[in-house]
Structure formats: C-alpha cells, structure tokens
Amino acid sequence: MNNYNITDNSLYKDYDYLYEVIDYTLEHEKVKNAIFSIIFVTSEEIQKINKEYRNIDRITDVISFAFEDSKDLEYNDLRVLGDIYVCIPRMKEQAIEYGHSEKRELSFLVVHGLLHLLGYDHMTKEDEEKMFKLQELILNDKDIKRWY
C-alpha cells in the first residue's frame, strides 16, 4: 500500500481530485509500498528552496527531491521516494498563461514531480519525449485535458 500526504503551506484548498490522479499514476507505473510527500508552497518558499538546493535564485513551478538512487532501493519493503514541492502562485499563473484550468495545471505539476521521484527525467530529447508523453497519457486517462 502506498502512503503519501499533501501539506498545504499556501492555503490552496481546491485539490481533493489530486488523490485520484496520484493513485492512478502510481497504479499505472505499478508502484507499491511507496511513501512520499507533496508540499504546496508560496513563491517565496520555492525561490528559497531553488536557490539553496539548485543555486538558481528564481521562482519555479515544481521541484522534486528523489530519495532513491535506484529503482530497486527498499527499506523493509517500503520505497521512500522523496518530496515534491509545488509553487501554488506559479501554478495559477501558468494555468492562465497556458489557457487551461488550475486543476489541469496542478495535476500536471504533481504528475511531473511524481514521475521525477520514480526516476523519469527530461535531460535528453528522447527522455523528455518519453516523460511528457507519459504525463499526457496519465492526465488524458483521468480526463484532465488541455483546453485549446
């Protein structure tokens, strides 16, 4: 059984649907017995985290800290995946910028962060295509689509 929690430091209350999206992502990727956290933060908090851990002094939308060095790493049959930080003000800005709902943008950012915890990356063009195709597939399966 997977175990995760959402901590809302930004006072954003409209995210009950995320549990279903997260559960579906874990099921799709056949993840069992994993633990991780999702933390909603303010612009100031994400900028501080970005500067401290990535040496980039600016606001970003999502940062993932993966604890696993390999997909085979387990502690007492429990996979400790890590933490996902989502900047709620940046998420709201991007929803407007990209012309879709906050539900879609927040779901995208959380799935993106979770896939990073599961070992996906977008450092090469091929990896980026694979990861972004998977994100779209998961979101489309949950009927969380882009607006055009």
Can you describe this structure?
With 148 residues, this protein is α/β, with parallel strands linked by helices. It contains five helices and four strands, in the order E-H-E-H-E-E-H-H-H. A four-stranded mixed beta sheet has the order 1-2-4-3.
List the helices and strands and how they pair.
Layout: E1 3-8, H1 18-28, E2 34-41, H2 43-54, E3 62-66, E4 79-87, H3 88-98, H4 102-117, H5 125-141
Parallel strand pairs: 1-2, 2-4
Antiparallel strand pairs: 3-4
Helix pairs in contact: 1-4, 3-4, 4-5
Question: Gist?
Answer:
The chain is of the alpha/beta class and 148 residues long. The chain contains 5 helices and 4 strands, in the order E-H-E-H-E-E-H-H-H.
Mean pLDDT: 92
Specify the biggest β-sheet.
4 strands, mixed
Name the helix and strand elements from N-terminus to C-terminus, one letter apiece: EHEHEEHHH
**Within the largest sheet, what's the order of strands?**
1-2-4-3
CA(first)-CA(last) distance? 37 Å
Query: What is the helix tally?
Result: 5
Characterize the overall form: globular
Assess the beta-strand content as a share of residues: 15-25%
Q: What brief labels describe this structure?
A:
four-stranded mixed sheet; single chain; 148 residues; 45% helix; alpha/beta
